[in-house]
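Blinded run. Sample ID left blank on purpose so nobody reads anything into the name before looking at the predicted structure. Input follows.
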Amino acid sequence: MVQLNRPHIGFFGKMNAGKSSIINALAGQQVSVVSNQPGTTTDVVKKTMEILGIGPVVLMDTAGVDDTSILGTKRVQRTQDALDQVDLAVLVFAGNFDEYDKSLMVSCLSRKVPFFVVQNKTDLQRTNVEIKGTDVVDFTCYQPNVPALINAIQSHLPKSSYSTDVILDDYVKAGDEVVLVVPIDGSAPEGRLILPQVQTIRNLLDIGATAICVKDTELRECLQRHSPKLVVTDSQVFKYVSSVVPQTIPLTSFSILFSRLKGNFDAFLKGTPSIERLQDDDKVLMLESCSHSVNKCDDIGRVKIPNLLQQFTGKKLQFTMVSNLDALPADLSSFRLAIQCGGCMVTRTQIMRRLEILQEAGVPVSNYGLTLAYCHGIFDRVTEIFRKRRG
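Blinded prediction complete.
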Protein backbone atom coordinates (compact mmCIF):
# COMPACT_ATOMS: atom_id res chain seq x y z
CA MET A 1 0.00 0.00 0.00
CA VAL A 2 1.13 3.55 -0.66
CA GLN A 3 0.69 6.61 1.51
CA LEU A 4 -0.97 9.31 -0.56
CA ASN A 5 -2.04 12.02 1.86
CA ARG A 6 0.52 14.43 3.24
CA PRO A 7 -0.67 16.02 6.48
CA HIS A 8 -0.95 19.81 6.16
CA ILE A 9 0.41 21.67 9.20
CA GLY A 10 -0.34 25.41 9.30
CA PHE A 11 1.41 28.07 11.38
CA PHE A 12 -0.87 30.94 12.43
CA GLY A 13 -0.47 34.06 14.53
CA LYS A 14 0.05 37.81 14.52
CA MET A 15 2.62 39.65 12.38
CA ASN A 16 6.17 39.28 13.66
CA ALA A 17 5.25 36.45 16.00
CA GLY A 18 8.02 34.48 14.29
CA LYS A 19 5.98 31.92 12.35
CA SER A 20 8.38 31.95 9.39
CA SER A 21 11.43 31.60 11.63
CA ILE A 22 9.92 28.57 13.36
CA ILE A 23 9.15 26.91 10.02
CA ASN A 24 12.70 27.57 8.84
CA ALA A 25 14.08 26.04 12.04
CA LEU A 26 11.82 23.01 11.66
CA ALA A 27 12.74 22.55 7.99
CA GLY A 28 16.43 23.21 8.56
CA GLN A 29 16.44 25.59 5.61
CA GLN A 30 15.01 28.96 4.54
CA VAL A 31 11.48 28.12 3.45
CA SER A 32 9.99 31.53 4.23
CA VAL A 33 11.48 35.00 4.02
CA VAL A 34 12.24 36.38 7.50
CA SER A 35 12.36 40.09 8.34
CA ASN A 36 11.72 42.44 11.25
CA GLN A 37 9.35 44.31 8.93
CA PRO A 38 5.74 43.52 9.89
CA GLY A 39 3.71 41.84 7.16
CA THR A 40 6.66 40.15 5.40
CA THR A 41 4.53 37.05 4.72
CA THR A 42 1.73 38.29 2.46
CA ASP A 43 0.22 35.00 1.30
CA VAL A 44 0.18 31.33 2.24
CA VAL A 45 3.58 29.71 1.60
CA LYS A 46 3.76 25.90 1.35
CA LYS A 47 6.77 23.64 1.79
CA THR A 48 6.73 19.85 1.40
CA MET A 49 9.28 18.10 3.59
CA GLU A 50 9.95 14.95 5.59
CA ILE A 51 9.82 15.14 9.38
CA LEU A 52 11.55 12.28 11.20
CA GLY A 53 8.97 10.24 13.07
CA ILE A 54 6.04 11.71 11.13
CA GLY A 55 6.86 11.32 7.45
CA PRO A 56 6.09 13.62 4.51
CA VAL A 57 4.14 16.75 5.46
CA VAL A 58 3.21 20.11 3.98
CA LEU A 59 4.15 23.10 6.16
CA MET A 60 2.02 26.21 5.59
CA ASP A 61 3.20 29.70 6.57
CA THR A 62 0.43 32.32 6.76
CA ALA A 63 0.03 36.09 6.93
CA GLY A 64 -0.51 37.76 10.30
CA VAL A 65 -4.10 37.88 11.54
CA ASP A 66 -3.59 41.44 12.81
CA ASP A 67 -2.63 42.86 9.39
CA THR A 68 -4.49 46.18 9.07
CA SER A 69 -2.74 47.37 5.90
CA ILE A 70 -4.62 48.24 2.71
CA LEU A 71 -4.44 44.62 1.54
CA GLY A 72 -4.64 43.30 5.10
CA THR A 73 -8.27 42.23 4.95
CA LYS A 74 -7.62 39.98 1.95
CA ARG A 75 -4.47 38.56 3.53
CA VAL A 76 -6.29 37.77 6.78
CA GLN A 77 -9.08 36.11 4.82
CA ARG A 78 -6.55 33.90 3.04
CA THR A 79 -5.15 32.98 6.44
CA GLN A 80 -8.62 32.10 7.74
CA ASP A 81 -9.26 30.04 4.58
CA ALA A 82 -6.03 28.13 5.27
CA LEU A 83 -7.54 26.89 8.53
CA ASP A 84 -9.98 24.85 6.42
CA GLN A 85 -7.06 23.17 4.65
CA VAL A 86 -4.91 22.02 7.56
CA ASP A 87 -4.88 18.83 9.59
CA LEU A 88 -3.13 20.62 12.46
CA ALA A 89 -2.80 24.31 13.39
CA VAL A 90 0.22 25.61 15.28
CA LEU A 91 -0.76 28.91 16.94
CA VAL A 92 2.32 31.10 17.44
CA PHE A 93 2.51 34.13 19.73
CA ALA A 94 5.30 36.24 21.18
CA GLY A 95 4.88 38.55 24.16
CA ASN A 96 1.26 38.93 25.17
CA PHE A 97 -1.42 36.37 24.34
CA ASP A 98 -4.16 38.76 23.23
CA GLU A 99 -7.56 38.83 21.51
CA TYR A 100 -6.08 38.03 18.08
CA ASP A 101 -4.55 34.85 19.50
CA LYS A 102 -7.77 33.93 21.27
CA SER A 103 -9.75 34.46 18.06
CA LEU A 104 -7.51 31.93 16.31
CA MET A 105 -8.30 29.40 19.04
CA VAL A 106 -12.02 30.06 18.58
CA SER A 107 -11.66 29.59 14.81
CA CYS A 108 -9.89 26.26 15.33
CA LEU A 109 -12.51 25.05 17.80
CA SER A 110 -15.41 26.04 15.53
CA ARG A 111 -13.78 24.22 12.60
CA LYS A 112 -12.79 21.24 14.79
CA VAL A 113 -9.15 21.73 13.77
CA PRO A 114 -6.63 20.22 16.23
CA PHE A 115 -4.11 22.79 17.49
CA PHE A 116 -1.44 23.56 20.02
CA VAL A 117 0.30 26.81 20.97
CA VAL A 118 3.93 27.90 20.60
CA GLN A 119 5.22 30.79 22.69
CA ASN A 120 8.06 32.17 20.58
CA LYS A 121 10.93 34.54 21.39
CA THR A 122 11.07 33.35 24.99
CA ASP A 123 14.66 34.60 25.13
CA LEU A 124 13.21 38.14 25.02
CA GLN A 125 9.99 37.76 27.01
CA ARG A 126 8.09 34.87 28.52
CA THR A 127 4.44 35.07 29.53
CA ASN A 128 2.86 32.50 31.84
CA VAL A 129 0.03 31.15 29.71
CA GLU A 130 -1.98 28.03 30.42
CA ILE A 131 -4.55 26.93 27.85
CA LYS A 132 -6.97 24.21 28.83
CA GLY A 133 -7.00 21.22 26.53
CA THR A 134 -3.75 21.80 24.66
CA ASP A 135 0.00 22.26 25.07
CA VAL A 136 2.06 25.46 25.15
CA VAL A 137 5.57 24.92 23.79
CA ASP A 138 8.33 27.43 24.56
CA PHE A 139 10.55 28.27 21.60
CA THR A 140 13.34 30.61 20.58
CA CYS A 141 15.10 30.63 17.22
CA TYR A 142 18.39 31.51 18.90
CA GLN A 143 18.43 28.12 20.61
CA PRO A 144 15.63 26.29 18.78
CA ASN A 145 14.17 23.34 20.63
CA VAL A 146 13.05 21.52 17.49
CA PRO A 147 12.60 18.10 19.20
CA ALA A 148 9.98 19.60 21.56
CA LEU A 149 8.17 21.09 18.57
CA ILE A 150 8.22 17.76 16.72
CA ASN A 151 6.95 15.96 19.82
CA ALA A 152 4.02 18.37 20.03
CA ILE A 153 3.23 17.85 16.34
CA GLN A 154 3.31 14.07 16.81
CA SER A 155 1.04 14.36 19.83
CA HIS A 156 -1.61 16.58 18.24
CA LEU A 157 -1.59 15.49 14.60
CA PRO A 158 -4.59 13.18 14.02
CA LYS A 159 -3.45 9.68 13.07
CA SER A 160 -6.00 9.63 10.25
CA SER A 161 -4.17 12.48 8.51
CA TYR A 162 -1.10 10.38 7.77
CA SER A 163 -2.51 6.86 7.84
CA THR A 164 -2.12 4.61 4.82
CA ASP A 165 -4.90 5.07 2.28
CA VAL A 166 -6.89 2.31 0.65
CA ILE A 167 -7.77 2.37 -3.05
CA LEU A 168 -8.43 -1.26 -4.02
CA ASP A 169 -6.87 -3.13 -1.08
CA ASP A 170 -10.30 -4.24 0.18
CA TYR A 171 -11.30 -5.82 -3.15
CA VAL A 172 -8.24 -6.82 -5.19
CA LYS A 173 -5.71 -9.37 -3.97
CA ALA A 174 -2.28 -10.55 -5.09
CA GLY A 175 -2.35 -12.29 -8.47
CA ASP A 176 -5.52 -10.55 -9.72
CA GLU A 177 -5.56 -8.79 -13.07
CA VAL A 178 -7.11 -5.32 -13.29
CA VAL A 179 -7.62 -3.51 -16.61
CA LEU A 180 -7.20 0.27 -16.45
CA VAL A 181 -8.77 2.18 -19.34
CA VAL A 182 -6.83 5.38 -20.02
CA PRO A 183 -8.11 7.50 -22.94
CA ILE A 184 -5.50 9.56 -24.77
CA ASP A 185 -7.50 12.46 -26.18
CA GLY A 186 -7.47 16.25 -26.26
CA SER A 187 -8.04 16.51 -22.52
CA ALA A 188 -5.22 14.11 -21.59
CA PRO A 189 -2.00 15.80 -20.32
CA GLU A 190 0.97 15.70 -22.66
CA GLY A 191 3.42 12.88 -22.02
CA ARG A 192 2.12 11.68 -18.65
CA LEU A 193 -0.73 10.04 -16.78
CA ILE A 194 -2.97 11.91 -14.36
CA LEU A 195 -2.47 11.39 -10.63
CA PRO A 196 -5.40 9.01 -9.94
CA GLN A 197 -4.16 6.70 -12.69
CA VAL A 198 -0.61 6.72 -11.33
CA GLN A 199 -1.76 6.15 -7.74
CA THR A 200 -4.05 3.29 -8.75
CA ILE A 201 -1.23 1.58 -10.67
CA ARG A 202 1.08 1.94 -7.68
CA ASN A 203 -1.60 0.58 -5.34
CA LEU A 204 -2.09 -2.49 -7.54
CA LEU A 205 1.66 -3.09 -7.66
CA ASP A 206 1.86 -2.85 -3.86
CA ILE A 207 -0.96 -5.38 -3.57
CA GLY A 208 0.84 -7.74 -5.95
CA ALA A 209 -1.85 -7.52 -8.62
CA THR A 210 -1.26 -7.01 -12.34
CA ALA A 211 -2.23 -3.64 -13.84
CA ILE A 212 -3.03 -3.78 -17.56
CA CYS A 213 -3.25 -0.28 -19.05
CA VAL A 214 -5.04 0.21 -22.38
CA LYS A 215 -6.63 3.00 -24.32
CA ASP A 216 -10.38 2.83 -24.77
CA THR A 217 -9.85 2.07 -28.46
CA GLU A 218 -7.91 -1.09 -27.53
CA LEU A 219 -10.21 -2.31 -24.76
CA ARG A 220 -12.27 -4.75 -26.81
CA GLU A 221 -9.18 -6.56 -28.08
CA CYS A 222 -7.67 -6.59 -24.56
CA LEU A 223 -10.74 -8.30 -23.12
CA GLN A 224 -10.48 -11.01 -25.74
CA ARG A 225 -7.10 -11.94 -24.25
CA HIS A 226 -7.77 -11.32 -20.53
CA SER A 227 -10.55 -11.98 -18.01
CA PRO A 228 -9.76 -9.35 -15.34
CA LYS A 229 -11.06 -9.22 -11.78
CA LEU A 230 -12.08 -5.60 -12.42
CA VAL A 231 -12.07 -2.87 -15.07
CA VAL A 232 -11.37 0.72 -13.96
CA THR A 233 -11.99 3.45 -16.51
CA ASP A 234 -11.83 7.19 -16.92
CA SER A 235 -15.37 8.37 -16.19
CA GLN A 236 -15.56 10.39 -19.39
CA VAL A 237 -15.72 7.20 -21.49
CA PHE A 238 -18.12 5.39 -19.15
CA LYS A 239 -20.84 4.90 -21.77
CA TYR A 240 -18.58 3.24 -24.32
CA VAL A 241 -16.60 1.16 -21.81
CA SER A 242 -19.79 -0.08 -20.17
CA SER A 243 -21.04 -1.30 -23.56
CA VAL A 244 -17.78 -3.20 -24.17
CA VAL A 245 -17.18 -4.76 -20.74
CA PRO A 246 -19.36 -7.86 -20.15
CA GLN A 247 -21.82 -7.65 -17.26
CA THR A 248 -19.94 -10.54 -15.63
CA ILE A 249 -16.87 -8.31 -15.15
CA PRO A 250 -17.16 -5.62 -12.42
CA LEU A 251 -16.66 -2.04 -13.61
CA THR A 252 -15.88 1.24 -11.85
CA SER A 253 -13.92 4.44 -12.48
CA PHE A 254 -10.89 6.27 -11.14
CA SER A 255 -13.15 9.07 -9.94
CA ILE A 256 -15.33 6.64 -7.99
CA LEU A 257 -12.24 5.07 -6.41
CA PHE A 258 -11.25 8.54 -5.25
CA SER A 259 -14.75 9.29 -3.99
CA ARG A 260 -14.09 6.46 -1.53
CA LEU A 261 -10.52 7.52 -0.85
CA LYS A 262 -10.99 11.26 -0.40
CA GLY A 263 -14.69 11.86 0.21
CA ASN A 264 -17.76 10.61 2.05
CA PHE A 265 -18.81 7.67 -0.13
CA ASP A 266 -22.04 7.02 1.78
CA ALA A 267 -23.08 10.66 1.38
CA PHE A 268 -22.27 10.50 -2.35
CA LEU A 269 -24.36 7.33 -2.77
CA LYS A 270 -27.27 8.99 -0.99
CA GLY A 271 -26.94 12.36 -2.71
CA THR A 272 -26.41 11.35 -6.35
CA PRO A 273 -30.05 10.22 -6.99
CA SER A 274 -31.09 13.81 -6.16
CA ILE A 275 -30.35 14.41 -9.85
CA GLU A 276 -33.84 13.02 -10.52
CA ARG A 277 -35.44 15.85 -8.52
CA LEU A 278 -33.77 18.76 -10.30
CA GLN A 279 -36.15 21.34 -11.79
CA ASP A 280 -35.83 24.25 -14.21
CA ASP A 281 -33.56 27.03 -12.89
CA ASP A 282 -32.27 24.91 -10.01
CA LYS A 283 -28.71 25.78 -9.01
CA VAL A 284 -25.92 23.19 -9.06
CA LEU A 285 -22.56 23.80 -7.37
CA MET A 286 -19.55 22.36 -9.22
CA LEU A 287 -16.51 21.82 -6.98
CA GLU A 288 -13.14 21.47 -8.68
CA SER A 289 -10.28 21.09 -6.21
CA CYS A 290 -7.32 21.83 -8.46
CA SER A 291 -6.02 24.47 -10.86
CA HIS A 292 -5.67 23.69 -14.55
CA SER A 293 -5.98 25.45 -17.87
CA VAL A 294 -9.58 25.27 -19.02
CA ASN A 295 -10.50 23.49 -22.24
CA LYS A 296 -13.59 25.44 -23.24
CA CYS A 297 -14.89 22.57 -25.38
CA ASP A 298 -14.07 19.49 -23.30
CA ASP A 299 -13.71 20.63 -19.68
CA ILE A 300 -15.45 18.00 -17.58
CA GLY A 301 -16.67 20.26 -14.77
CA ARG A 302 -17.56 23.33 -16.80
CA VAL A 303 -18.89 21.75 -20.00
CA LYS A 304 -19.37 17.98 -20.10
CA ILE A 305 -21.20 17.37 -16.81
CA PRO A 306 -23.43 20.48 -17.08
CA ASN A 307 -24.44 19.50 -20.62
CA LEU A 308 -25.07 15.89 -19.65
CA LEU A 309 -27.11 16.84 -16.57
CA GLN A 310 -29.37 19.13 -18.59
CA GLN A 311 -29.75 16.48 -21.29
CA PHE A 312 -30.58 13.78 -18.72
CA THR A 313 -33.05 15.85 -16.68
CA GLY A 314 -34.50 17.82 -19.58
CA LYS A 315 -34.24 20.91 -17.36
CA LYS A 316 -32.45 24.24 -17.77
CA LEU A 317 -30.08 24.40 -14.82
CA GLN A 318 -27.79 27.07 -13.38
CA PHE A 319 -24.19 26.13 -12.57
CA THR A 320 -21.74 27.79 -10.19
CA MET A 321 -18.07 26.71 -10.34
CA VAL A 322 -15.76 26.87 -7.33
CA SER A 323 -12.15 26.04 -8.18
CA ASN A 324 -9.19 25.10 -6.03
CA LEU A 325 -10.08 25.27 -2.34
CA ASP A 326 -11.74 28.68 -2.68
CA ALA A 327 -14.51 29.46 -0.21
CA LEU A 328 -17.97 28.12 -0.88
CA PRO A 329 -20.75 30.65 -1.58
CA ALA A 330 -21.89 32.32 1.63
CA ASP A 331 -25.53 31.34 1.02
CA LEU A 332 -25.91 27.67 0.14
CA SER A 333 -29.66 27.49 0.68
CA SER A 334 -30.48 27.95 -3.00
CA PHE A 335 -28.35 25.04 -4.25
CA ARG A 336 -30.09 21.76 -4.99
CA LEU A 337 -26.96 19.68 -5.61
CA ALA A 338 -23.18 19.92 -5.22
CA ILE A 339 -20.84 17.81 -7.34
CA GLN A 340 -17.25 17.33 -6.12
CA CYS A 341 -14.34 16.27 -8.35
CA GLY A 342 -12.22 13.27 -7.37
CA GLY A 343 -10.00 15.50 -5.23
CA CYS A 344 -6.74 13.89 -6.30
CA MET A 345 -4.72 17.07 -5.64
CA VAL A 346 -6.01 17.73 -2.11
CA THR A 347 -6.26 15.80 1.14
CA ARG A 348 -9.23 13.91 2.50
CA THR A 349 -9.42 16.38 5.39
CA GLN A 350 -9.88 19.26 2.95
CA ILE A 351 -12.62 17.47 1.01
CA MET A 352 -14.41 16.30 4.15
CA ARG A 353 -14.53 19.80 5.67
CA ARG A 354 -16.13 21.09 2.48
CA LEU A 355 -18.66 18.25 2.40
CA GLU A 356 -19.55 18.77 6.06
CA ILE A 357 -20.45 22.41 5.34
CA LEU A 358 -22.68 21.34 2.46
CA GLN A 359 -24.37 18.60 4.45
CA GLU A 360 -25.03 20.97 7.35
CA ALA A 361 -26.71 23.29 4.83
CA GLY A 362 -28.85 20.39 3.56
CA VAL A 363 -27.27 20.30 0.10
CA PRO A 364 -27.07 16.77 -1.44
CA VAL A 365 -23.55 15.89 -2.62
CA SER A 366 -22.28 13.80 -5.51
CA ASN A 367 -18.99 13.18 -7.28
CA TYR A 368 -17.97 13.68 -10.92
CA GLY A 369 -17.72 9.95 -11.65
CA LEU A 370 -20.93 9.04 -9.82
CA THR A 371 -22.83 11.80 -11.61
CA LEU A 372 -21.61 10.62 -15.02
CA ALA A 373 -22.50 7.04 -14.13
CA TYR A 374 -26.00 8.02 -13.01
CA CYS A 375 -26.70 9.99 -16.17
CA HIS A 376 -25.48 7.04 -18.28
CA GLY A 377 -27.73 4.62 -16.40
CA ILE A 378 -24.89 2.55 -14.89
CA PHE A 379 -24.81 3.94 -11.36
CA ASP A 380 -25.78 0.65 -9.70
CA ARG A 381 -23.32 -1.33 -11.79
CA VAL A 382 -20.23 0.79 -11.08
CA THR A 383 -20.90 1.03 -7.33
CA GLU A 384 -22.06 -2.57 -6.79
CA ILE A 385 -18.77 -4.07 -5.61
CA PHE A 386 -18.34 -1.38 -2.96
CA ARG A 387 -21.97 -1.39 -1.81
CA LYS A 388 -21.82 -5.17 -1.36
CA ARG A 389 -18.73 -4.88 0.79
CA ARG A 390 -20.58 -2.44 3.05
CA GLY A 391 -23.23 -5.09 3.67
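Unblinding after everyone has recorded impressions. The radius of gyration is 23 Å.
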